[in-house]
Structures are given as C-alpha cells and as structure tokens.
Amino acid sequence: MKLEVLEKDCYYHIYNKGINGAPIFENDENKIFFLKQLSKYLLGKISIFGYCLMDNHFHLIIRLNEDEKIVKQAFSNFFNSYAKAFNKQTERTGSLFEKHFKRIRLKGDDYLKQLILYVHLNPKHHLDLKFHDYKYSSYQAFISNKETKIEKEEVLKLFGGIENFVFCHNQKNDFLTEKHTFE
C-alpha cells in the first residue's frame, strides 16, 4: 500500500493499530502517557482536531503546520518513545504498531465533519460505550470549558456552534443505535 504524502496545511486522518490487533493500551496510564508524548513530540508541528484512543487502535485528526519531513520524524520519535515505554512496562519486545501509520488526506469540510463524528463515536461502535462519557476521546474537550490543546474554536465553528456539534453527535449516535438494534 502506497502511503499518502503529508503536505503542510492539509488535514489528515492518522490511525494505526497494534500489531496483529494486539492492545496498544492496557490501562488509563498508557492512554494518558500516549497523549502526553503526542503533545511533547508533535504539538506546534500539527494542530489536533480530534482523537480517540481505543485499546488496540487510535485515531487522530490533524492539520500539518510544518513540512512533511519534520512531521514524519516527529511522528516516528513519538511512536518509538511510546512503544519503548509500553514494552518496558509490559515486559514485551518487538514492534507494537503495524508497520506504518496510516494516513488519509481529508478533502473538504463535510469529510472533516463526518470524520470527527466517526472518531468520537468509536467507543459506541467498538465497545457499545456511551461516547459522551468516554475519557479518551476529544469529545469532552469540545463541550467543556476547560483549557485544551485541541482546535476547539475552529471545529465548533465548522459545526455552526456547540449546540449543533452536540446535536450532530447525538443524531449519528441514535442512527448507529437504531442500525445496531435492527441487525
């Protein structure tokens, strides 16, 4: 599979999973550490528009603020630092993630909005959890008054405000619930 070229000022869906579907997070501390390392290595080089950390995979919605070479190296350093710490903590060796992180360039605001919904509803889709209570997604950052590193204002503007942001998430959740009920 040919990997998408990363271009400055473009939006991307970045995702990966554990090798052979194995967990990449075993506890809350792993997820907290992952987010800290993400900030340490990439904040400023990218802007974050959404994320969700599941036990065996993650999703990031980003915009590049630097050139590809700088961002790819920062991602490499980030993933390596996390994998080394995880391997040490769990007394394992070898690769943690699938070979290369996947990336899809987003084309248009509608795609970006739909992806934000998809990423935030991942806990519902994979674990049948209430997405609005899930601690390791960026959804809470958008609806709270707390300071955040997420591009909150830009995303809420994209949705036409916080009320519509919440409404769209609830509509999509209801649709998934109905679809799941009839399967």
From TrEMBL:
InterPro entries to which the protein is assigned, alphabetical: Transposase_17 (IPR002686), Transposase_17_sf (IPR036515)
Taxonomic superkingdom: Bacteria
Domain Transposase IS200-like positions: 7-122
Stored SUPFAM superfamilies: Transposase IS200-like
Alphabetical GO biological process terms: DNA transposition
Molecular function terms from GO: DNA binding; transposase activity
Protein name listed in UniProt: Transposase IS200-like domain-containing protein
Natural source organism: Flavobacterium caseinilyticum
